[in-house]
Amino acid sequence: MEFSVVAVGREDDSPVEEPLRVAVLADRLGYREVWAGEGPTWDSFVLAAAIGAATEQAVLTAGPVPVSVRDPLTIVRGAASTAAVTGRPVGVALGTSSKRVVEGVHGRPRTRPATALEESASAVRGLWDSLPGEPIVPGSGFPRRLPPPGGEITVAAFGERAIAAAVGYADRLLLDIVSPEQVRVLRARMLAAAERAGRTPPRLAAWLPAAVDPEPETLTQVLRSVVGYLAVPGYSDMFVEAGLAEVVELAAKGADRDTLLRALPPRAADTVALVGDADTVRARIDAYAEAGLDEIALVPATAGDPAGERTLTALKPT
């Protein structure tokens, strides 16, 4: 099992600079890769550049960036620019994001998201490895002046069409907040899609909230990250199977996030996160590995554990 670390700005009362602290710690502990998460606060490429300036060795991946609000050239240019100023390989993750973010934050329509993801992944792959001197976009007349970013293309996927796009164009397929059982099902779908396409399947990774020996406030932060998935098709079924049908029903009726957080029992974190003492977390990691996951991208809880130091130290590479 490979491990990487996600440095993402939380939309709560966490310090705005917290992702940088997480990234610096991850780099010092020897984690190979740091993800610079996109969100309402941080632009992922700016955050990746800041992380590159503050760290020494970690490979950088920006995103997932929502394909409905960034065109393919903007994505590739952002990665290449970040690689140029940091001197590191920079990858990019593509995703559809949510209606709440695309329409509610960016004010852009989120229509035909699966098609948008497929088209963006195809275009990004076509532009990714072009060399200096070649047209920045075929037929544009503008030459590319920066070298390729050097990192990997990741596609965040869940549905059938998104999985097919990842198989067709990505080096890595990313899942977000999933159980081992879901990993098993989604890996099977990925392998089937690769067989149909006659392609080698990408590596399979997942962003998972993590908290070793959590304080009460740490666990609350993990549960807060679960709330947004309760009403999402596919995820809601998983939580129902985990015995959380009443909370899922509340979410379906439009209950606000604070109401849902109060209704979530602590055991909800056990469904899709790495939570508990070190032995419990290690056993959980083994379950994900057995299900077919190749990489866990740790999203360390930081409430009660600044920069996620307790968690990242306990799980650091050996």
TrEMBL record:
Its EC number is 1.-.-.-. Pfam families: Bac_luciferase. The keyword Oxidoreductase applies. SUPFAM superfamilies: Bacterial luciferase-like (SSF51679). Keywords: Oxidoreductase. Gene3D superfamilies: Luciferase-like domain. One of its GO terms (molecular function) is oxidoreductase activity. The keyword Oxidoreductase applies. Residues 1-294 form the Luciferase-like domain. InterPro entries: F420-G6PD/mer, F420_Rv3093c, Luciferase-like_dom, Luciferase-like_sf. NCBIfam families: F420_Rv3093c (TIGR03841). This is LLM class F420-dependent oxidoreductase.
